[in-house]
Write a structure and sequence with these properties.
- By secondary structure, this protein is α+β, with helices and mostly antiparallel strands.
- 40% of the residues lie in helices and 26% in strands.
- The chain has a domain at 55-243: Acetylcholine Binding Protein, Chain: A.
- The chain has helices spanning 2-44, 113-117, 245-262, 273-296, 306-344, 348-358, 416-422, 424-429, 434-466, and strands spanning 63-74, 83-95, 108-110, 124-125, 129-134, 142-146, 151-163, 175-184, 192-196, 202-204, 212-226, 229-242, 372-376, 384-390, 400-406.
- Strands 1, 2, 3, 5, 6, 7, 9 and 10 form an eight-stranded mixed beta sheet that branches. The protein has a four-stranded antiparallel beta sheet with strand order 4-8-12-11, with no helix packed on it.
- The longest helix has 43 residues, at 2-44.
- The termini are far apart.
């Protein structure tokens, strides 16, 4: 008998546990049903959902509604459309004496749309909203909590697109202030007053915006005035600072490299015309193309933006580098053309005299002295006298002059170095040289351009970042 009693004891335990759970569930369900029945009785007992909770006081006291926002997601403002998208919870709290009952044992949570429609709710809207959607997945995201003391909490989940009028004068080093406005739609300030919750009225989740960082959130109260009356409203300001990482990598660093590459032409020889022209034109087209791509993602604003100042200055530096080569090349060719015209005007006797007068008797010729040939054609006969002047490095400072014969049809040849040697005595009388000036311009630009660009950066970055 003892063994049989012990075998039945587990069955008895589980049976008692099931009876206890059923009793508890029945009690909870009965209590909930009782609360719902109490709510139904309150709604049927002369409750008018069109009247405000203080309407029975002859509108002498407006209904106070405390509002709270919880921003779950915050999209980066779009400069083209001037708006941003958020996913938020709107919580509103007020007191309705008509739903106060001591018979309610605990707060009653309702999400039935039919029951929600049966009670009075503040008719609010978002004045600066472009689009708004109510969340229905997987059920309508709405909740009404009725407390025994008559305090009602009304919560909605919405997806809203707010307008944000941005000032892009400092783009992409700008800071923007975007707002969320909540206002009464049909009730004036004599019937409804909106106010922010005292502690942390606007909270956010873990926001991860790609282009902005949230700096601060400020809340304030406002009032909208229309011809039919004044309406209470609330405003939440989101202070945003644009992240510079994307634009630093995609815009600033490439253009800096293009400007620096354009300075390479200052270190190239003046005679390297194809190389210097190709380098200048390529860098100029690259910077211009980059500026065009940046403007495609921005609105057509009538004012100058910070990125416009940067791209315009970089384009100017590259263009000036190309223009500098044009000037230097012109001066270099001007010197060569002057020597060529002067050499053609010389007669053989004048050349001989210039060679002898230009040679320093106290100093032997340098190894760089080159051969000068000049042919003079006689008006009579087919034989042309040819004068060869050789500067011979050796024992004495003398010129060996030989005369050879050229046949008809042969043309004189004059080297550039030889023409410069022929002009030695003129160089003594005048030390100015266009080629020397061209080289000096190149050497000056090697330091003037980087220094000017550095000064521009020292002015640009503090002005747009600190002001």
């Amino acid at each position: 008998m003892a063994t049989l009693r012990n075998s039945k004891s587990p069955v008895s335990f589980y049976l008692q546990l099931a009876i206890a759970m059923w009793t508890f569930s029945y009690t909870v369900l009965a209590t909930m049903m009782k609360d719902l029945q109490i709510l139904d009785q309150l709604l049927k007992k002369g409750y008018d959902r069109r009247a405000t909770p203080t309407n029975h006081l002859n509108n002498s006291v407006p209904t106070l509604v405390l509002c709270e926002l919880f921003v779950r997601s915050f999209g980066s403002p779009n400069p083209l459309t001037m708006d941003y998208k958020v996913d938020l919870y709107l919580r509103q709290k007020w007191k309705d004496e008509r739903l106060k009952s001591d018979e309610l044992t605990k707060p009653l949570d309702l999400n039935d749309p039919n029951l929600v429609k049966a009670i009075w709710k503040p008719e609010v809207y978002f004045p600066n909203a472009k689009e708004a959607d109510f969340q229905f997945v997987t059920v309508p995201n709405v909740l009404v909590r009725i407390n025994p003391d008559g305090v009602i909490l009304y919560m909605l989940r919405l997806r809203v697109t707010f307008s944000c009028m941005m000032d892009l004068s400092k783009f992409p080093l700008d800071r923007q202030t975007c707002t969320m406005e909540v206002a009464s739609f049909s009730k004036t300030v004599e019937e409804l007053i909106l106010a922010w919750k005292e502690d942390n009225p606007v909270t956010t989740g873990n926001l991860g915006m790609s282009q902005f960082e949230l700096v601060a959130i400020m809340t304030d109260r406002c009032q909208e005035s229309f011809q039919i009356g004044n309406y209470s409203c609330l405003v939440a300001e989101f202070h945003l600072s644009r992240s510079l990482g994307f634009h630093l990598v995609q815009s600033y660093l490439p253009t800096i490299l293009m400007v620096v590459i354009s300075w390479v032409s200052f270190w190239m020889d003046v005679n390297s015309v194809p190389g210097r022209v190709t380098l200048g034109v390529t860098t100029l087209l690259t910077v211009s193309s980059k500026a065009t791509n940046i403007q495609e993602n921005l609105p057509q604003a009538s004012y100058v933006k910070a990125i416009d100042v940067w791209m315009g200055t970089c384009t100017a530096f590259v263009f000036l580098a190309l223009l500098e080569f044009t000037v230097v090349n012109y001066l270099w060719r001007k010197e060569c053309c002057r020597n060529f015209r002067r050499a053609r005007a010389y007669s053989p006797d004048a050349i001989t005299k210039d060679l002898m007068d230009g040679q320093d008797n106290d100093k032997p010729p340098s190894p760089s002295d080159t051969l000068v040939k000049l042919n003079t054609k006689k008006e009579e006969g087919s034989i042309t006298n040819h004068l060869e002047a050789h500067f011979v490095q050796g024992s004495g400072p003398h010129h060996q002059l030989t005369r050879t014969m050229l046949g008809p049809g042969e043309h004189p040849t004059i080297s550039i170095e030889g023409m410069n040697r022929l002009d030695a005595n003129h160089s003594k009388r005048s030390s100015f040289s266009w080629q020397t000036q061209a080289r000096n311009i190149d050497e000056t630009c090697r330091y003037a351009f980087p220094l000017s660009f550095l000064v521009f950066n020292l002015i640009y970055w503090p002005y747009y970042l600190l002001t």
